[in-house]
Design a protein that fits this description.
The chain has 263 residues and is an all-alpha fold. Among the domains are: 2-62; 161-263, no CATH class. It has helices at 2-29, 35-58, 83-90, 92-114, 195-203, 209-213, 217-226, 233-237, 239-249, 251-258. Residues 62-67, 105-114, 128-134, 138-142 and 147-159 have low confidence and may be disordered. α3 crosses α4. Residues 117-127 have a biased composition (Pro residues).
Length: 263
């Protein structure tokens, strides 16, 4: 073991010397350092590098193998037999008794095997499940929608002041033979009455707004059916309603409401 230790350290010294020599040559040739500086740095390299190699590769190898802990488990000491067992084994009588005991053991095993195994007890029968109550299906009657009464479409309500036309031919409005002393009204102020219709109304004896304002369903029906080329114009343009506004509120109020057709 000592020879191995000396060999490891010798190799470490050789490598450290070579490294120190290389460092000294490098400093003198390449770095142009003085001779004594290069030698000093070479010796310092030998000491340091050599110590490192010895510590890294040679430490711990000088421990003898006998001192190292063994990884093999220790054997347990054998338990000595009792004196009685030793005497029985050595004596002829003991050997015969031991042989008889060994022969009796296998003979008893078939007897034990011949004994029938106990029959397993039958498991208790499960309790009968409770009778399920019959499910009664209750069918909910679908809610029937309430019958929708079909109603006939309602006719549009007549405008305020405008009577609805009566069924049938109606009745011709009562007229005047001539306009009053103040002169005939300008019936063209009513929306829907032009010069042609004004002549027709004058031919019926209608010259003033208050005459039209007094018309009822019969007169409105007659006017709707007997106005040439403009049937239904009286109801559609609300002649009676416009005439009542003029008579009751005045012409200025009528013209103001005419801007928005508020009749």
């Amino acid at each position: 073991m000592g020879d191995q230790m000396q060999g490891c350290r010798g190799k470490a010294g050789i490598w450290a010397g070579i490294t120190g020599l290389i460092v000294a040559v490098f400093l003198m040739v390449v770095a142009h350092e003085p001779f004594y500086v290069a030698v000093f740095m070479g010796l310092l390299t030998v000491l340091l590098f050599g110590g490192f190699l010895i510590w890294a590769f040679c430490t711990g190898r000088d421990v003898p193998e006998a001192a190292r802990p063994s990884s093999a488990p220790a054997k347990e000491p054998a338990i000595p037999e009792s004196p009685v067992e030793t005497f029985n084994a050595q004596s002829p009588e003991g050997a015969a008794a031991h042989a008889q005991a060994a022969a009796a053991v296998p003979a008893s095993e078939p007897a034990a095997a011949a004994q029938p195994a106990p029959e397993p007890k039958p498991a208790p029968a499960p309790a009968p499940a409770a009778a399920e109550a019959p499910q009664v299906e209750v069918k909910a009657e679908a809610a029937k929608p309430a019958p929708v009464e079909e109603t006939a479409p309602k006719a549009a309500a007549p405008a305020v002041g405008q009577p609805a036309a009566a069924e049938g031919p109606g009745k011709k409005p009562r007229g005047l033979k001539a306009p009053r002393k103040a002169g005939a009204d300008d019936l063209k102020k009513i929306e829907g009455i032009g010069p042609k219709l004004e002549e027709t109304l004058n031919g019926w004896g209608i010259y003033h707004f208050d005459q039209i304002a007094k018309w009822g369903p019969e007169e409105v029906a007659y006017a709707d059916q007997n106005v040439p080329r403009f049937k239904g114009r009286c109801t559609r343009d609300k002649w009676v309603s416009q005439a009542r506004i003029i008579v009751e509120d005045g012409m200025d109020a009528f013209l103001e409401r005419a801007k928005t057709n508020d009749y």
